[in-house]
């Protein structure tokens, strides 16, 4: 068994300010990688800029990361970073900016290389340091080596083959407090998917399942807010973010499985938010698992059966998707041997069609 989690995690209120010295110690000129607006609205960007200025560290802002960032966006940021002489990267936001930051860190270190380097398994490139500041509660990218990017040339999403773990992660639930409920809902479903897919996984170990168990307990405690019965509190925001971080720790060991593989077609072709797309397949994926594993997951999440789980997700992150798109997703994952191998039971065509056949569409 192997458990490798090299990220130094600070999980507390105002941690960007409290640990600004450690952030600044990563270099002399930061490339701040983020989206167009959310980091400005939730205060995370201001906190980071203040932290850097306090220690007289220069910074350049790249705020053009789109949802499901593309290889083209990574290369644009790489060129800016190289021209400005940056020597570390700070990813701020959800999984998209943090994933992009990891790939950018690789490409800045290899300024003469083409974008193909990110997907060249024969290469072993270095990267400049990376810090991560998550502001959503879904991907757990702040503690994984994974960078998922959009490949427009082949019309799908895929992971950069090189693992880049952030040097530090600064996790503060306060950044969730002003996020739209829809964003929190979709990212929370993504975190749930990470936890389930890591537990029901060929590579699962006692170490990864330890992270899953804690993450599911925290996630379940937030169901009153997620179901609309309670308002978001600072405590709930912290729990949701921490559950997401535990999910990241778990998939850093195991990777994701069939539901994520199915989701990529829906995200790319159907423009369905990643978390909502992942959530569509959790009930069917769990239904096929070993009884003891299935009952353990259901017990921790407080659902009586997989149908209850599926209905909860459908209400939380409603999706309308055509049968044709679902069938194309099934075809895609059946041609993805790595995702199929991650499933601990035989994921043949019959099983995949059964999983998509049970999809609950609403909205």
Give an overview in words:
The protein has 363 residues and is α/β, with parallel strands linked by helices. It is 52% helix and 10% strand. Strands 1-8-5-4-2-3 form a 6-stranded parallel beta sheet, sandwiched between helices. The chain has a two-stranded antiparallel ribbon with strand order 6-7. Strand 4, helix 6 and strand 5 form a beta-alpha-beta unit. It starts with 7 loop residues before the first strand and ends in a 6-residue tail after the last helix.
Brief description of this entry?
This protein has 363 residues and is α/β, with parallel strands linked by helices.
Keywords, separated by commas or semicolons:
single chain; 363 residues; alpha/beta; six-stranded parallel beta sheet; two-stranded antiparallel sheet; 8 strands; 52% helix; globular
């Amino acid at each position: 068994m192997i458990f490798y989690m090299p990220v130094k995690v600070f999980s507390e209120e105002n941690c960007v300010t409290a640990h600004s010295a450690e952030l600044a110690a990563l270099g002399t000129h930061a490339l701040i990688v983020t989206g167009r607006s959310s980091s400005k609205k939730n205060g995370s960007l201001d906190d980071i800029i203040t932290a850097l200025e306090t220690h007289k560290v220069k910074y350049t802002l790249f705020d053009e990361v789109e949802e499901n960032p593309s290889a083209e966006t990574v290369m644009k940021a790489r060129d800016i970073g190289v021209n400005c002489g940056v020597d570390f990267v700070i990813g701020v936001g959800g999984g998209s900016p943090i994933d992009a930051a990891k790939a950018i860190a690789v490409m800045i270190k290899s300024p003469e290389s083409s974008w193909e380097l990110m997907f060249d398994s024969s290469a072993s490139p270095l990267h400049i340091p990376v810090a991560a500041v998550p502001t959503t509660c879904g991907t757990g990218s702040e503690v994984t080596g994974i960078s998922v990017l959009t490949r427009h040339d082949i019309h799908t999403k895929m992971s950069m083959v090189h693992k880049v773990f952030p040097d530090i992660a600064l996790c503060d639930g306060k950044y969730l407090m002003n996020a739209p409920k829809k964003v929190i809902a979709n990212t929370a479903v993504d975190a749930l998917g990470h936890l389930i897919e890591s537990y029901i996984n060929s590579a699962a170990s006692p170490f990864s399942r330890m992270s899953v168990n804690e993450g599911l307990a925290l996630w379940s405690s937030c169901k009153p807010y997620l179901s609309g019965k309670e308002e978001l509190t600072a405590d709930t925001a912290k729990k949701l973010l921490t559950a997401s971080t535990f999910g990241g720790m778990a998939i850093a060991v195991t990777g994701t499985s069939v539901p994520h593989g199915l989701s990529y077609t829906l995200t790319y072709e159907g423009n369905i938010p990643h978390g909502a797309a992942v959530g569509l397949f959790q009930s069917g994926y769990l239904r096929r698992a070993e009884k003891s594993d299935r009952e353990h997951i259901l017990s921790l999440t407080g659902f009586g059966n997989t149908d209850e789980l599926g209905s909860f997700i459908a209400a939380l992150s409603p999706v309308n998707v055509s049968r044709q798109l679902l069938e194309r997703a099934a075809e895609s994952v059946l041609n993805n041997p790595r995702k199929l191998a991650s499933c601990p039971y035989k994921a043949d065509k019959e099983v995949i069609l059964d999983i998509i056949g049970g999809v609950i569409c609403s909205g």
